[in-house]
Amino acid sequence: MTRRHLLSAAAALALAAASVAPVAADESLAPEQTKVVLVLDASASMNEPDPSGVTKLEAAKTALIGALGSLPEDADVGLRVYGATVDGPGRTPAECADSQLVHPIEPLDEQGLTAAIQSFDAVGETPIAYSLLEAAKDLGPDGKRHIILVSDGEERCVPDPCVAIQDISDAGIGLQIDTVGFGVGDAAREQLKCIAEAGAGTYYDAADAGTLTTTLTTLSTRTARPFTVQGTPVEGTPTPEAAPLLEVGQYVDTSASSTQGTTTKYYRVPRTQPGSTIRVSMIGRLPTAKDGVNRGRWDWRLSTPDGIECSSRWALADDRQRLGVIATGTVVAVQLDPRAQQPTKSAEACAEAEELIYEVTRAKAKTAATTDVEIRVTEEAPAADAASLPDGVSSVPTSNADQLTSPASGTPVNVVGGASFNDALAVEPGTYVTDIVPGELVLFKTHVGWGQEAILAVDGPDPTFAPLQGLGPNDWMSVAGNVYAPDLSQMDSLEAQNAARYRVMEGGFDRQGSPDINQVPQVNFRNRWDSPRMYFSNSDGFAMAGDYYFAVGLGELRDEKLRGVPVPITFSIAVTGEVQGAPEYVEADAEPRPSPTDEPTPSSEPTPEPTEAATATEIPADPTDDGTDEPAAEAEPSGSALPLIGGALLVVGAVGAGVYAVMRRR
């Protein structure tokens, strides 16, 4: 089987959307196994009372047992405890190595795990670093590996767990560590947060047994989620001549910013069918930063081998509101518009080139950093009926939230969002509530068909949520909602508003400025030619039907009491209009066929069962952009997210084994 066919099979397995003969699945492309180790503190301090009246250990055991049902059924799960066997004078070698795997990592066995959880007492020390290093060994070198640590105190042995986990990360071992502080003080909170950051995870703060139960249920649900970037490893080159060939598929590489100047990488992208639309997308995710400016903007360019530009895009890496950043950009080489009387030479060249050059540049930054990035390449067959399809929309919404109304209705459904486009939770139109830790970003997706429109409204935080009652009148909360097209380009209709800001007023919240409501205009194939682009002229992704991604996020607050505390945020999604205007695609050496994208992409996730989380994203306007880098209108529209592979139209999704998945350690 050729490399191209392997990638085709992987794409078909992940997100097949076309009604064509199935592509045979290669067993080597099976998804990576999810392996989880639950690490529980059984040190003497866990005998102290929880606010509910029971001991912390009893509360933790109850919460952990209750969360077992939320773990993926096909996951391998083990349990490690520390401080449960050696009761000594304090910090002896024996106590600092007091950590046992009390249940092996094996297919989920709720009964066996429950018995293991109930089998020990709290007696000893807090050897966190040793336990985490042992847990990493327990998980081995392969699969999606996840550690969930619950602790009520800080490390009392050596080494420093932050340093130990950073050493694992620096060694290139892909491992995610989430930490939960259960009734902890400031020092322990800082240490557990540091561990989570070093382990590419999230810190959660649980003040009582109820919050601990909710948090562990959320984390159990998230263990099935893949890491942020996913695909076949590839290395771009400093010159186009030696650049690697990116066929249709999904890839991972790194993008480095430098304090010395710009950095550039090149890739080559082949076209397999004349007149097709080539689309190349890159996603880079950066964590929150206290001083998140001048981090090296991205510039993407797609051109012919002789230098004719087909399209270019840009995105900032700045994080002024401490929300974290998902920087996305999609460049295209589109089929010719059959209505164009005199197409430009650049439009013709980009539509006919058998190979294209993809260029990625990072600008000079205040601090040098390397970001793992995901690259997606799709190829869309030409539409045979492009001239007769409905006209594109003549204008696109910009900052019109004051004229829109949230579609919120009924009791919100609890959901847990994904951490990336690969694991975004599929939801139907409706009203939802998701718990978001300050500084967190999570993603959801909803299908929008040809001829339909959509609205995403972030309805805001729950003013009755008890921890928020302690905020003062000078505390502000930034809540963001963002929209991405099926080609992953950001297309917020609220260009000038990166997040809605809420201020504490008389026991409730007063929103400052416009509501956070984003609108997806009517989705038409001809939007790529007839319509303006959206979000600072960086997206015309609304020229395709498919899964639209909605991100929700919460900025970090000044109030330290809310660090790591999941805050309920309500959001609503509406999709309106009849499905109509689907194109007929031309298959290679075949008759035109109808577009298959009027049916939603199959999802491995059921529509919301209870749970949480969110992800938002920020690409503020570039104040230096004068529009001079924009290509001719005919040369750079987007198409549908339907790659052409061997005569079958497929949506490229996450590839499986033999493919690399990683989240860069922060």
TrEMBL record:
Provide the residue span(s) of the region labelled Disordered: 382-409, 587-640
Stretch forming the signal peptide:
1-24
InterPro entries xrefs: TAT_signal, VWF_A, vWFA_dom_sf
Keyword Transport annotated: no
Compositionally biased spans, kind Polar residues = 395-409
Query: Where along the chain is composition biased (Pro residues)?
Result: 593-609
Low complexity compositional bias, start-end: 610-622
SUPFAM superfamilies noted in UniProt: vWA-like (SSF53300)
UniProt KW Signal keyword: yes
UniProt keyword terms in alphabetical order: Membrane, Signal, Transmembrane, Transmembrane helix
Q: Where is the composition biased (Acidic residues)?
A: 623-633
* Protein known as: Uncharacterized protein
Organism equals Tessaracoccus flavus
Record lineage: Bacteria, Bacillati, Actinomycetota, Actinomycetes, Propionibacteriales
